[in-house]
Write a structure and sequence with these properties.
Elements (H helix, E strand, L loop, with lengths): L18 H17 L3 E2 L5 E3 H8 L4 H6 L1 E4 L5 E4 L4 H10 L8 E10 L11 E10 L5 H17 L6 E6 L3 H17 L6 H9 L13 H5 L10 H16 L5 E2 L11 E8 L8 E7 L1 H6 L7 E7 H10 L11 E5 L2 H17 L5 E3 L6 H10 L4 E5 L1 H6 L1 E6 L7 E4 H11 L2
Parallel strand pairs: 1-5, 7-8, 12-13, 12-14
Antiparallel strand pairs: 2-4, 3-4, 5-6, 6-11, 7-9, 9-10, 10-11, 14-15, 15-16
The structure holds adenosine-5'-triphosphate and magnesium ion.
The site of magnesium ion has 2 residues, from loops.
């Protein structure tokens, strides 16, 4: 026998048992996005490799070792998108969406990174991305955070998440800080791991993002970027934090929050939970004004975030905030030759008159008993039974499956009414 082919490591199927959970969260996301006037943008999954190198930064985990890059048949170097910000900005620049315009956008879909698969870390994973362009802030920074708060509230997990905030300053401010940081880490170079040794010259801020537990004490004692920020940046940040306080939104300052990508400036944030082990960041983002020029646009403003959907779903599961799946309301049983087509006619009538009804038609024949067993197993609230007698009398029998109520024989019109009342 031929050997079964399995899915690629770190790339998961979502099976029918869990798709209702995904659909539920996706529905809430759509409602929250439209409540803030954000529009959906749909982007390709593959982009030119150059786009990610230029935007994410050459000396980042993603570009150094995580990208799925390949040559297509024309010899062009293409990459499966590891994140959505670069593609979103590319599309906006390409289609002139940033000419004297403000944009509030969101997208949703798979991202690809060749990481070591573990809980909360996959090679194909889904992100919700939100990006806004054209607003210097900090008002839009606040709006973005309020939008995430509302999402957590709607999903019932606000209490499980902590908002961590930092400001990365401007490019100039970071340059001064960088020198100090290099000096500090050089003094302790014997404590740096291999990755950090390399980053000391190429991208020292990234050392602060190290997940290596042995490096944490050294990192905690490093100089703090906040001490190197100029007046304008400080005002931007303090306005944001004051407004958060006035609105009763809790946050913690995390001076070591630098984010894994190069393009951030000023406000950066993460929503973190302690309920998911090491992979506790569910949502992360910040301001990235300078990326627009880096990709060939005119000076402009940008802030956005990405949310890891698998981590979000794990957190909802942990917190018992996922609704029970409920795939079927009614299971239609047909017995006897006369009921075969009559069953389809009745089913189509019910589907037309009750557009929200979930009706599963039994197919494949079998005795009444075996069909009834399947009806029970389907989770349906009601079995509709159509035998030859019912067909002749133009009626249908309704049998409640989850209560002790009696079976009733009713006209088709009465069946519509009964179901309408019962499934409200
Ligand atoms: P981490 O520090 O966990 O590697 P990151 O800084 O690389 O995260 P971002 O690029 O900011 O993550 O992505 C935003 C969010 O997407 C993360 O906070 C996380 O929820 C999710 N995410 C990132 N990488 C993965 C992955 N490999 N598998 C599942 N979710 C991921
Ligand atoms: Mg990462």
């Amino acid at each position: 026998m031929a050997k079964n082919i399995q899915a690629i490591r770190g790339m998961h199927d979502v099976l029918p048992d869990s798709t209702p959970h995904w659909q539920y969260v996706e529905q809430v996301i759509k409602e929250v996005m439209s409540a803030y006037g954000y529009q959906e943008i749909r982007l390709p999954i593959v982009e030119k490799t150059e786009l990610f190198k230029r935007s994410i930064g050459e000396v980042t985990d993603i570009v150094e070792k995580e990208m799925y890059t390949f040559e297509d048949r024309n010899g062009d170097s293409l990459t499966l998108r590891p994140e959505g910000t670069a593609g979103c900005l590319r599309a906006c620049l390409e289609h002139g969406l940033l000419h004297n315009q403000i944009q509030r956008l969101w997208y949703y879909g798979p991202m690809f990174r060749h990481e070591r698969p573990q809980k909360g870390r996959y090679r194909q994973f889904i992100q919700l991305g939100v990006e806004t362009y054209g607003i210097p802030g900090p008002d839009i920074d606040l709006e973005i955070l309020l939008l995430t708060v509302r999402l957590w509230q709607r999903l019932g997990i606000l209490e499980q998440l902590e908002l961590q905030l930092n400001s990365l300053g401007t490019t100039e401010e970071r340059l001064v800080y960088r020198e100090q940081l290099v000096e500090y880490f050089s003094r302790h170079s014997e404590q740096l791991d291999e990755d950090s040794q390399r980053r000391l010259t190429s991208n020292p801020l990234r050392i602060l993002d190290s997940k290596n537990p042995k490096m944490q004490t050294l990192i905690e004692q490093a100089p703090i970027l906040m001490d190197f920020l100029g007046e304008e940046t400080k005002t931007h940040f303090s306005q944001l934090t004051e407004q958060l306080e006035q609105l009763g939104i809790r946050y913690t300052l995390n001076p070591r929050l630098v984010r894994g990508l190069d393009y951030y400036s000023k406000t950066v944030f993460e929503w973190v939970t302690d309920r998911l082990g090491a992979q506790g960041t569910v949502c992360a983002g910040g301001r990235y004004d300078s990326l627009i020029e880096q990709l060939g646009g005119k000076p402009n403003y940008a802030i956005g975030f990405a949310m890891g959907m698998e981590r979000l779903l794990s957190l909802l599961e942990e917190s018992a905030q996922l609704p029970e799946p409920h795939p079927v309301d009614v299971y239609l049983i047909r017995v006897g030759e006369k009921a075969e087509l009559a069953g389809f006619k009745l089913a189509e009538k019910l589907r037309s008159e009750l557009p929200n009804l979930k009706l599963l038609m039994h197919c494949g024949g079998g005795s009444f008993k075996s069909q009834f067993k399947k009806a029970d197993k389907s989770g349906a609230e009601y079995a509709l039974i159509l035998g030859e007698d019912e067909v002749i009398a133009s009626t249908v029998s309704i049998k409640p499956l989850r209560s002790q109520q009696e079976q009733q024989n009713v006209s088709h019109a009465e069946a519509v009414e009964l179901l309408k009342q019962a499934l409200r």
